[in-house]
Amino acid sequence: MIKRRPFHHSIYFKSKKRPITSTCAVPLDPQPTSNDHTSLFQSRVHDLLRRGLLSSAQQAIQRFIASSPTVPDAVFAIEFAAASGVDLGLGISCEILRKLVDLGEPLSAHDFYHDHLIARGIEPDSNIVNSMVICLAKLGKLDDAVKLFDRRIGSEDCVLSNAACTMILEGFYEQDKFLEAFDYFVRISDANVKLGMWIYNVLINGLCHQGYVGEAHAEN
Question: Which residues form the signal peptide (predicted)?
Fold first, then answer.
């Protein structure tokens, strides 16, 4: 029986790793919960796995995570996937990262990233990079966020989010590194990412305050 467990930073899915399978090797018999949506999710995934539709089951798990209102709900989906013998896959991994960051668990997202993506040699795509840039910035690891950001910006398949770009610039602002922020602002603009006017105003004021009038004038 799959049970919900209290969420904490050490949940980590470290002990939940299972062999990758293309079908459900051991039929599940999940017990209905009081939540109709969760019960429907369990039944749907169970049915898809019995029919050998692994990709569809992964998509159902990903959708459940995306709609989860709390971290424990999202974690439940991961535990359910592990108990089902379902490989998380890139799509599910991206979604759990985004959800952990969005719901205020950047440390959990950071550990998940290293334990389940980097450890498996998975190259971060734009979705992962966007989530991890936000995550690292929230953890005060601006240098690491910038390194990850630099690996993607300017690449042909780069799709940077407004939120990730904003977090990079905010990180520089907090450290009074307005000249560095100016350089990234230009690169972000060249990547056709549109930022809020307040980001622009703070940058101009910061550059002027530190004596970089020429750079500030160039942005006007």
Answer: none
Average pLDDT, the chain: 82
pLDDT digits 0-9 by tens, 7-25: 443 344 443 433 333 333 3
**pLDDT tens digits for 179-202?**
999 999 999 998 888 899 999 999
Within 10 A of 20 (CB to CB), how many other CB atoms are there?
11
Distance between CA atoms of residues 202 and 209, nearest Å:
10
Nearest Cα to 202, choosing from 156, 171, 158? Answer: 171
Asked whether the predicted pLDDT for residue 26 surpasses 80, the reply is: no
Cα(139)–Cα(158) distance, integer angstroms = 24
Q: How far apart are CA 112 and CA 171, in angstroms?
A: 23
Burial class (CB in 10 A: 0-12, 13-18, 19+), 189: middle
How far is residue 80 CA from its own chain's centroid? 20
Lookup: tokens for 23: 């079908």
Cβ(96)–Cβ(78) below 8 Å: yes
Instruction: Report the SS3 class of residue 2.
Output: coil
